[in-house]
Design brief:
160 residues, mainly alpha, 4 helices
């Protein structure tokens, strides 16, 4: 899957989740069940809308990462964004949200993502074969080449 297709697919998911949330808000009574049903839709909307942004950021910040790893990282960051937004919405609905909670949750999600990226780097390095070291021409100058071993004939000195 190409990054462009992943971005379009995530935007399509966000559009569908937005339609579902609009239907839920317009046709359902505001109850706790409505909040429970709206939370995954908020996660999908924010994740779908933020994934193309994270794809662009990952391309700019880590140009060596391409393909599936780039898409996987951007999707994971989009899901973190969606979970963060949904958690803030739920905390606001139940009256537990303040600015300290916003900062602590942001720091928690950022640290979780940094931990996962650090954990992912050794796995990527293990999958790539290490390039064979190239011998440099100056490496052989300081060595004394050993003469090839040959069998020596014993000389007969005439003693005994």
């Amino acid at each position: 899957m190409s990054p462009r297709f992943a971005a379009l697919l995530s935007l399509f998911v966000a559009l569908l989740a937005g339609a579902g949330l609009a239907a839920l808000v317009n046709y359902a009574k505001p109850t706790t069940l409505g909040v429970v049903l709206a939370t995954p839709l908020v996660v999908l909307i924010v994740a779908g809308l933020s994934t193309p942004f994270w794809l662009l950021m990952q391309r700019r910040l880590t140009p060596k990462v391409t393909g599936k790893v780039l898409i996987r990282t951007a999707l994971r960051e989009g899901i973190w964004s969606g979970l963060y937004a949904a958690l803030l919405v739920v905390l606001r609905v139940f009256g537990y949200l303040d600015w300290v909670m916003v900062l602590v949750l942001a720091a928690l999600f950022i640290m979780l993502e940094l931990f996962l990226q650090q954990r992912q780097q050794p796995q990527q390095a293990a999958k790539k074969p290490a390039p064979a070291p190239k011998p440099s021409p100056s490496a052989s100058y300081g060595r004394i080449a050993a003469a090839p071993k040959t069998k020596r004939k014993k000389k007969d000195d005439g003693i005994g």
